[in-house]
# Entry
Amino acid sequence: MFLEELLTRQASTFHPVIPFDKSKDRFYLFDFTERNDELSAGQIADTEDFADYINAKLKSSECKYGIGGYNEHRTLYARSKHFDIQYRSPEMVAAAMLDTETEARRLHLGTDIWGPSGTKVMAPLNGLLHSFAFNNNDSDYGATIILTHNIDGHSFHTLYGHLSLNSLKNLHAGKRINQGEVFTEFGMRFENGNWPPHLHFQIIKNMNGWEGDYPGVCSYAERESWLNNSPDPELLLQLKPYVLNKH
# Structure
C-alpha cells in the first residue's frame, strides 16, 4: 500500500492528464458491465455502432469526455478473442498454480477516458520514457507509451494506450517527459486497436519484464494480485469530483 499512500500525500501536485475546464466540464460515467442493458453484443463488436453509443451519451449529457472502467468486470471484452489470451500473475507462477481452468480476461485494470481523437494527453508528473510499441491486435492497445516516475526515491510506471501512431515518432527509452508536457494524443480506430477514441490510463508498480505493453485486463480469479500491482488510477487522475452526478 505504500505507493497508494505516497500518491495520496502528493495529490495536490499532479497535473491533469487531459485538457478540461474544471469550472464547467463534467465526465459521463460509463458502465460496460452486464448491468448495462442498453448495449448489445452486436453493438459492442461493431466499432462504429459502439462509437455512436459513446458519442450519443456524451452529447445527451452535455459532457466533453466519458470515464470509467477501473476494477470493472466488463462483458464487452467478448468482442475479441484477444481477451481470451491468458496471462498469469507472477504470484500464480511462483506458486505453480498453472493448472487452474483457463478463464477469459474481463476485469479492467485501468481507467478509460473517452473523447475525440486527437485529444491531447499530458504527463501528470515528471518521468522518463520506459518503453513504447504498436500493439496492433484487434481490441489491443494499438499505439502505447509507458513512462517511469520517481517520487521520494520510489519508482512506478504509467501506461497510456490507444494513442495515435504519430505519438511514437522520435521516441527513445530514457527520454525525459516533463510534468504537464503534451507527449501524445488519442488515436483513431485504425491505430488504437479498433476502438472508439479513448485513453487507457493505468498505474503499474512493477513492470515484471514487460516492454511497450502490460496487461490492462485480467481474469476475475486473479484480480487481487493484478489490482495490487495496478492501483486505482484516480490517485493520479483526480477526476472523481468532475464526474456527472446523474446520467
Q: What stands out?
A: Helices lie at 2-9, 41-45, 47-60, 90-94, 223-229, 234-237. The two ends are 33 Å apart (CA to CA).
